[in-house]
Amino acid sequence: MDKLYLPTALEDSRRVLVAGAGGGFDVYVGLPIYERLKSMGKTVFLANLSFAQLRATTAVELHPALFEVNLNTKGEETYLPERSLARFLSQRFQEPLSVYAIDNVGAKPVRAAYAHLASMLDIDAVMLVDGGTDILLRGDEASLGTPAEDAVSLSGVHSLDIPTRILACLGFGIDTFHGVCHASWLENVAALTAVGAFLGAGALIAKMPEVQLYLDAVSHSELETPSRASIVNACIASAIEGQFGNFHRSRRTRSSELFISPLMTLLWTFDLETVAKRNLYLDTLRETETNREVLLAIEGFQATVRSRPPQRIPY
Q1: CA-CA distance, 234 to 177, in Å (whole number)?
Q2: Structural domain boundaries, residue 138
Q3: Dist. CA 68–CA 74, nearest whole Å
Q4: How many helices (H) and strands (E) does the chain have?
Q5: What is the pLDDT of residue 256?
């Protein structure tokens, strides 16, 4: 119970991409997975849907909507999470490491970016990671949280013709800030469990070496981007370190009320194909080219669907 275990589907994988789904600092959530896979002898790469203005930087454009960011990338000096992570990892492992950044655009160019990246890196597995858990919402919940970036990333990875595609979520409870009903989320997990698509969950414990890497990386990112430090990772790190309730690691949250809890330390894993097939609106995003089109498509879908009433978890 005090070791980080990953789904057995990854045992035969050789080259794995760990990708942040929701933009911002989501890729950091994948660091315990990244480090664990490396310790298993896998070749591991990192990617992230990016909120940065990538074309305003010196990041190398590999394909429309796909860039390579390294520790020396210039531009966006106050906010470029992919560069912050490349700097941290390059320093930690004493070798230059890159993070692949996918532009925050529509589902169609994101799918093309993932296809190019999968071919270029010759990957045989993807772990798509979500900071928070709202990527598991299927579309008929009372609130979808912040679905746009998660949905296009889910679409991108689902389109790949590779043997293993897994979805991981970390930070149960964080999406309450965006109105998510977690009883509905748990109902979705139950439905995935019923069809064998829930692959297991485990707690991230501070003494795990993979988790220590994550905590150090979060601290480093907070020093690099103090004005836009990650709220999601601050909450998760606080929970791992044993904080509880209305605790504020970041000054960005001090005007709101938080509920940090041990449930935020749980890493949940699912079969990505099943999650994508259960999503009720993913097909409506298929031909979107821009983030604006994605938002409008989701808004239009929500106007037509009858939502499940929110429930209160009775304990």
Answers
A1: 14
A2: 8-228+263-302
A3: 12
A4: 10, 9
A5: 87
